[in-house]
């Protein structure tokens, strides 16, 4: 299996960190922008897009700050995706930091996918 490349993205979002956290950490919040539907049982989240579904295991969750998951279909346990809220101490600007992994030939496609999903999230939040 080819090694994957780490992708780190930053998206400024005009929303309170507590509201944003609800949209990145709960099945109901995530299903508004990340997937068509999301179910969770304990630490396993099932993401549904049309006819396909993928399962991810919750690795870490820090209230009000971040959520980190790993796709169960991925054999390599060192790969994950994380959504982390960062607040600038001086300006109080809020950003959503994304860490993900993709095959080298799929990096641009993965970045575009995140950009489109975050655009949907911003629209739901009423952020520019």
TrEMBL record:
It comes from the Bacteria. Gene3D superfamilies: 3.30.530.20. Residues 1-126 form the START-like domain. This is SRPBCC domain-containing protein. It comes from Mesohalobacter halotolerans.
